[in-house]
């Protein structure tokens, strides 16, 4: 199929982009790897596309103030290959699982966050690390905690007249360990279940599950690490999975199957992250 007719606007400034978004039914075009298929299948019919690829400042990738700053136009492939991303190991581990290499060459990190697919990797990573999403609107700039950013399936805290301009990920600190894993039918497919984990040597542990609910599910799992071996963790992670998995399931996997996957992945990655934190 072909997209329904739409107007195309390429603003010169972020403020101009916000003005266009405020006029009515408009969508932001950055990488387009999620938006273009939606348009082609006519699942969405925006009146205007606002192309932000040439906006100054949105292609920034820099480490500053203990954070990795990514502009809204920064491609996933650039992040994947950048030496700066070594300061955020969880992104480095998750990025090869985001679609296929060809898609990552055009897709953006902020675009994945804004699309908010329940099975997407990057929203879960951002929530696990408590990243900060930067949003610009008619009333100026504001920030949103990544754990509050996704409000439901394909739904975020960004208003129709607002634009995501960037995201800030905290750099890892000494004594932190990380884990990331997912199960998909084929590499590049959306995950049936996945986990992103951060463990600190002082005992604090956070787990973000994706593919099992309408948004990333974040839990403080510090209490689970009294006995940090994978075998000892399994009963607790199985119980956690039974709590957080609330999808009805589909042709690719039932609710029970996804819960089983999540329990196994959570135990394995928590044990691995703790070993790394204490190494």
UniProtKB/TrEMBL annotation:
Span of domain FAD-binding PCMH-type: 1-174
PROSITE patterns, sorted: FAD_PCMH (PS51387)
GO molecular function annotations of the record: FAD binding; oxidoreductase activity
The answer on whether this UniProt entry bears the keyword Oxidoreductase reads yes
Pfam families named in the record: CO_deh_flav_C (PF03450), FAD_binding_5 (PF00941)
Q: Which UniProt keywords apply?
A: FAD, Flavoprotein, Oxidoreductase
Q: What is this protein called?
A: Carbon-monoxide dehydrogenase medium subunit
Tell me which species this is from. Actinomycetospora cinnamomea
């Amino acid at each position: 199929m072909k997209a329904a007719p739409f107007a195309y606007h390429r603003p010169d400034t972020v403020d101009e982009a916000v003005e266009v978004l405020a006029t009515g039914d408009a969508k932001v075009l950055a990488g387009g790897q999620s938006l273009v298929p939606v348009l082609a299948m006519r699942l969405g019919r925006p009146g205007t596309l606002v192309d932000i690829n040439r906006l100054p400042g949105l292609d920034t990738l820099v480490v500053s103030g203990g954070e990795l700053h990514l502009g809204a136009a920064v491609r996933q492939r650039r992040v994947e290959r950048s030496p700066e991303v070594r300061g955020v190991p969880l992104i480095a581990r998750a990025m090869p699982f985001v679609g296929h290499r060809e898609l990552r060459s055009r897709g953006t990190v902020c675009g994945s966050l804004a699309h908010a697919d329940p099975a997407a990797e990057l929203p879960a990573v951002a929530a696990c690390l408590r990243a900060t999403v930067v949003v610009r609107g008619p009333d100026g700039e504001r920030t949103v905690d990544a754990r509050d950013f996704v409000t439901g399936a394909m739904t975020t805290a960004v208003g129709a007249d607002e634009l995501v301009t960037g995201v800030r990920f905290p750099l890892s600190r000494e004594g932190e360990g990380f884990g990331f894993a997912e199960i998909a039918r084929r590499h590049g497919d959306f995950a049936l279940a996945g986990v992103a984990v951060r463990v600190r040597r002082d005992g604090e542990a956070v787990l973000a599950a994706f593919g099992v609910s309408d948004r990333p599910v974040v839990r403080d799992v510090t209490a689970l690490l009294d006995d940090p071996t994978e075998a000892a963790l399994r009963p607790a992670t199985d119980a956690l999975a039974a709590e957080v998995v609330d999808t009805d399931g589909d042709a690719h996997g039932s609710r029970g199957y996804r819960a089983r996957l999540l329990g196994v992945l959570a135990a394995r990655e928590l044990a691995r992250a703790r070993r790394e934190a204490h190494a």
